[in-house]
Amino acid sequence: MTDLKIIYTETETKGRYAATQSGVKGAAEVTISKLSPTLIIADHTAVPDSMRGLGIGRALVDRLIADARAKGQRIVPLCPFVRAHAQKHREELDDVIQW
User: Fold this and answer.
1) Pick from 82, 81, 77, 84: nearest CA to 99
2) CA-CA distance, 73 to 62, in Å (whole number)?
3) If 0-12 CB within 10 Å is exposed, 13-18 middle and 19+ buried, where does residue 3 land?
């Protein structure tokens, strides 16, 4: 997935990671809500059919986690996709996931 491009955009209260890959139609996304400077909610993950099975959802969650760590934030995983990933990797994500 060397040609995977993830762009983060934000407003004062929301954030969105959007992933595109050359040669693949559509864009995948993870959206967040900002509760405070140190606490965010992962609300939603969407991966279009054209991108399923390529690991793009996982790449988005990995980027979300890396960014949250870098900013000293904790993530409340309300989104079922992010929650499943967090539960599967509970020990290694203990510093960044807020249960």
Assistant:
1) 77
2) 14
3) exposed
Q: Which two tokens stand for residue 37?
A: 């400077």
Return the ∠ at Cα 83 (arms to 78 and 67), rounded to 5°.
85
Q: How far is CA 57 from CA 4, 16, 29, 39, in A?
A: 11, 13, 8, 21
User: Structural domain boundaries of the chain?
Assistant: 4-88
pLDDT in tens, 1-21: 569 999 999 999 999 999 999
Q: Specify the pTM.
A: 0.94
Closest CA to 41 of 69, 70, 13: 13
Which CATH superfamily does the domain covering 4-88 fall into?
Gcn5-related N-acetyltransferase (GNAT) (3.40.630.30)
pLDDT in tens, 19-49: 999 988 999 999 999 999 999 999 999 999 9
